[in-house]
Prior knowledge:
The chain has 126 residues and is mainly β.
Amino acid sequence: THARITNIEISNMEIQDNSKPSLPRSRDINSLVQIQGTVIRTEDPKIIEIKKEVMCQKCKYIFAIYADIETEGNPFPRILQCPSMSTEKPCTGRKFLDVPNSSLITNYQEIKVQEQFKMLGMGTIP
């Protein structure tokens, strides 16, 4: 299986020591990582909405909210109160409308990879 990586700025990449195997960690976000393993399953490519703008119905303040891409279903956060601080006292609005044509969408594909047996320690289950 091959993956095509696009839109990478080589000048911003950090080269890290790959001498010991390790699973990608949260510190690896926005980094190109290399892993070895066997692809055991791929899902069809999907499109997800990762950002959208919403407008407070009370004060008309527009702000962006971001989906939680690490949670199944990629939910947007529940907005409890308008975050506007543009007036002398904070807005108390609790009803919001999606701003048309403000969504940012991207595509993604989930790939399940199993560690290679030769990389596992004695008694370790993949």
